[in-house]
C-alpha cells in the first residue's frame, strides 16, 4: 500500500544533499513512465524480490530515498535507515489479464518488434498510460514532496503471452543512462549474478562536481549566444503565441527499418565525399544517429512551414560520463547530460542535403563534447541559474527549437529478463520488443514541443523514434518522413 501521510522526516533518516545537475528546473518538471514490453509471461514475485535485493546491495539503497525540499528551496534526499513495509524502498504494483494482449482493446495497439522494410508511424505514446501505470502512481514531483513515498514506482502488467514493466520516476532521479544502469543492475540480481552489479557512484558525493575543473563560463562556445532577460521575455511571449494558436500536441512512434538508416548514411557519406573541396577526408564522419536527427529535423521543420528566415536551433543531448571518466568506475545513475547546440535558418535546414545537416550536427557535438567545454557549460549553468533562475538558453527567441535525446547507447533493447520467465520449456534471452516512454496525460499546451526521443535499435535492427510535436502538423510530418524514406 502507498503511504498517504504527509512529508515527514524521522530521526533515523540519513539526509543527503542533491547533486547540482539533478536539481535544475527541467529535471523537477519531468515525470517519466518508461514501459518495456516482453513477448513472454514474467514472474512478478521474482521481479519484486530481485529489486528488493538490489536496494540492499551497497549504496544502491539510495534509490529508495524520499524527496524533500529544504527551507532554502533546495531538494534533498531523506533515506530511511531501513526499508520496511510501512516505508518501502519502492512501490511495486501488478495487474493481470487472463487473455492474450491481442484481445485487449488498448494494449493490442502497442507496437512490438517486427520484420519490415517500410517506415511505420504508429499510435500515441501517452495513450497507453491507463494500462501501463497504476492509478495511484504520481504524475509529478509535487506528490513526492508532499507524501512519504519512495521515488521508484514499478507497475507490472501480465497477459497470457506478454508482460509490460513500467518504471515511473521524476527526472531528478535518472537520465537515460542512469535508468539503464538501474535496469542492468536489476537484471544482474534477477539472474543470480550479484557480482556483476557495479558499484553505485554518488551516494553522498557529487561525482560530476568533483570531476569538474574551474573553467570560466565565458570560455564556452555558446556563451555569447545566451539569452538576456529581455530575450527570455520575448521567448515566453513567442511560446505563448504558439500555444494560443496551436494548443494541441501529439506524440507518435516511428519505426524505421535498419536497412533504410544504413542506406541514408551511405548516401550521405557519398555526397560528402563528392564535396572534397569543402570537407577534408578526416572530417567526413557521421553516425547513423547524426543522419537520423538531420532527417527528422528536416521533416519537422518542413511540416511546420515557417518563413525561410526563421531561426532553428537543434539541441543534441549527450552523456558526459565518458568525457569526465565516470563511466569506467561504476554506475552513476544521476543526471549527466548537456546539449550540443547547432543553429540554422529554416531555409538552410530544409534546402540543404541531409548529409550537410548531419555533418554540421556532428561538428557541433565534437566541438562541445570535450572536457573544457563541459567544464565551461557547468560554470555557465551555475552563473545563469544564479542570475536568472533558469538554465542557459541560446540562439534567437524567435527560433523553433528541436531537442533530441538518443538512448541507443543505453542499450535498453539488450536487457535480458529471462531469469523471470514462467515457461521453463523456453530458452534464450527475453529482451524488450518495444520501449514506450511517456509523460503524464493529458498533455497540456505547455509541454515541450519538437522533442525527439530515439529509444534505440531493437533485436531485428529497427530504429525506434518517438516525437512530440504540434498536433496539427502531424499529417505533414508523416508525409515528409515517408517522402524522404522513398527517396533513399
From TrEMBL:
<dbReference type="InterPro" id="IPR023213">
    <property type="entry name" value="CAT-like_dom_sf"/>
</dbReference>
<dbReference type="GO" id="GO:0016747">
    <property type="term" value="F:acyltransferase activity, transferring groups other than amino-acyl groups"/>
</dbReference>
<dbReference type="Pfam" id="PF02458">
    <property type="entry name" value="Transferase"/>
</dbReference>
<dbReference type="InterPro" id="IPR050317">
    <property type="entry name" value="Plant_Fungal_Acyltransferase"/>
</dbReference>
<protein>
    <submittedName>
        <fullName>Uncharacterized protein</fullName>
    </submittedName>
</protein>
Amino acid at each position: 500500500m502507498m503511504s498517504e501521510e504527509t512529508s515527514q522526516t524521522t530521526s533515523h533518516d540519513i539526509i543527503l544533499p542533491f547533486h547540482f545537475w539533478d536539481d535544475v528546473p527541467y529535471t523537477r518538471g519531468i515525470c517519466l513512465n518508461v514501459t518495456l514490453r516482453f513477448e513472454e509471461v514474467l514472474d512478478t514475485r521474482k521481479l519484486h524480490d530481485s529489486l528488493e535485493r538490489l536496494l540492499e546491495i551497497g549504496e544502491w539503497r539510495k534509490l529508495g530515498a524520499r524527496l524533500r525540499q529544504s527551507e532554502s528551496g533546495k531538494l534533498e534526499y531523506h533515506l530511511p535507515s531501513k526499508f520496511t513495509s510501512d516505508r518501502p524502498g519502492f512501490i511495486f504494483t501488478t495487474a493481470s489479464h487472463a487473455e492474450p494482449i491481442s484481445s485487449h482493446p488498448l494494449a493490442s495497439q502497442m507496437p512490438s518488434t517486427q520484420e519490415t522494410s517500410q517506415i511505420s508511424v504508429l499510435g500515441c505514446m501517452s495513450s497507453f498510460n491507463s494500462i501501463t501505470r497504476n492509478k495511484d502512481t504520481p504524475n509529478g514531483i509535487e506528490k513526492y514532496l508532499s507524501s512519504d513515498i519512495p521515488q521508484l514506482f514499478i507497475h507490472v502488467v501480465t497477459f497470457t503471452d506478454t508482460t509490460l514493466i513500467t518504471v515511473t520516476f521524476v527526472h531528478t532521479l535518472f537520465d537515460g543512462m542512469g535508468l539503464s544502469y538501474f535496469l542492468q543492475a536489476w537484471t544482474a540480481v534477477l539472474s543470480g549474478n550479484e557480482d556483476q552489479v557495479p558499484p553505485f557512484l554518488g551516494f553522498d558525493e557529487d561525482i560530476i562536481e568533483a570531476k569538474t575543473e574551474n573553467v570560466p563560463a565565458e570560455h564556452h562556445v555558446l556563451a555569447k549566444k545566451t539569452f538576456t532577460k529581455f530575450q527570455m521575455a520575448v521567448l515566453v511571449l513567442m511560446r505563448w503565441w504558439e500555444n494560443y494558436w496551436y494548443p494541441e500536441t501529439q506524440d507518435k512512434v516511428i519505426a524505421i527499418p535498419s536497412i533504410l538508416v544504413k542506406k541514408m548514411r551511405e548516401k550521405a557519406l557519398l555526397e560528402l565525399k563528392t564535396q572534397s573541396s569543402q570537407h577534408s577526408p578526416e572530417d567526413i564522419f557521421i553516425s547513423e544517429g547524426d543522419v537520423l536527427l538531420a532527417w527528422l529535423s528536416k521533416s519537422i521543420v518542413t511540416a511546420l512551414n515557417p518563413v525561410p528566415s526563421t531561426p532553428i536551433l537543434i539541441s543534441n543531448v549527450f552523456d558526459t560520463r565518458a568525457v569526465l571518466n565516470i563511466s569506467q568506475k561504476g554506475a552513476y545513475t544521476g543526471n549527466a547530460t548537456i546539449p550540443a547546440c547547432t543553429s540554422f535558418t529554416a531555409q538552410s535546414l530544409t534546402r540543404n542535403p541531409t548529409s550537410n545537416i548531419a555533418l554540421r550536427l556532428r561538428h557541433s557535438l565534437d566541438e562541445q563534447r570535450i572536457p573544457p567545454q563541459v567544464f565551461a557549460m557547468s560554470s555557465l549553468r551555475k552563473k545563469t541559474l544564479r542570475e536568472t533562475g533558469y538554465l542557459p538558453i541560446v540562439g534567437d527567441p524567435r527560433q523553433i527549437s528541436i531537442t533530441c535525446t538518443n538512448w541507443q547507447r543505453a542499450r535498453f533493447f539488450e536487457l535480458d529478463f529471462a531469469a523471470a520467465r514462467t515457461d521453463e520449456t523456453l530458452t534464450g534471452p527475453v529482451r524488450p520488443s518495444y520501449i514506450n516512454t511517456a509523460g503524464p496525460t493529458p498533455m497540456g499546451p505547455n509541454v515541450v514541443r519538437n522533442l525527439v526521443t530515439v529509444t534505440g535499435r531493437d533485436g531485428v535492427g529497427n530504429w525506434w523514434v518517438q516525437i512530440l510535436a504540434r498536433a496539427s502538423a502531424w499529417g505533414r510530418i508523416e508525409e515528409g518522413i515517408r517522402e524522404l524514406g522513398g527517396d533513399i
